Amino acid sequence: MTSEPYLVRIGENVTISGNVTFVTHDNSISKISSQYVNLFGYISIGDNCFLGQNSTIMYGCTLANNIIVASGSVVCNSFGEENIIIGGNPARKIGTWDELKCKGNQSMKRKEALSAAKSKEDWKFIKRKEK
Predict the structure, then answer these.
(1) Would you tell me which of 19, 31, 65, 130 could form a disulfide with 46, CB atoms 3.0–4.6 Å apart?
(2) Where is the signal peptide (predicted)?
(3) Cα–Cα distance between 40 and 74 in angstroms, integer?
(4) 21 in any annotated domain
């Protein structure tokens, strides 16, 4: 997590996947100027967010409510828009909740159908387009 947990605010109903890192300070400024030892900053995660595996949230960043952070992303800027998906290094907006819901309705089984699918073994796998 972080060595300064008091600098991190996490809202309600937030999912934090494995190996998510909260970076609340940075010592690199000491290499540039002997006047400073560390840079510090708060991290604020809104309500109903999902932080994907191996993502990194940098100091000074705020995420609004209802944001999905894609796995492996490095969040080094704040995002004030709600109902979005961000990803990449550095993270940027890559989609919306409505787009993901539409995609999910087209290609994934609903929760209710999962138990039936397990017994029938008629899973539908998603094939990604080659680039």
Answers:
(1) 65
(2) none
(3) 17
(4) yes
Range of the domain at 90: 5-120
Which of 15-29, 66-80, 101-115 tops mean pLDDT? 66-80
Is 62 exposed, middle or buried, given 0-12, 13-18 or 19+ CB atoms closer than 10 A?
Answer: middle
Please determine, for residue 128, whether its predicted confidence score (pLDDT) is greater than 80. Answer: no
How far is it, in rounded angstroms, from Cα 92 to Cα 78? 10
Helices (DSSP H) in 33-96: which residue ranges?
A: none
The runs of H, that is alpha helices, within 1-131 are 29-32, 97-107, 111-120
pLDDT in tens, 52-101: 999 999 999 999 999 999 999 999 999 999 999 999 999 999 999 888 88
Buried b (16+ CB within 10 A) or exposed e, 85-101: bbbeeebeeeeeeeeee
In a domain, 126, yes or no: no
Task: Give the number of domains in the chain.
Answer: 1
Report yes or no on 130 lying in a domain: no
- DSSP-derived letter for residue 79 is B
Question: What's the CATH number where 36 sits?
Answer: 2.160.10.10
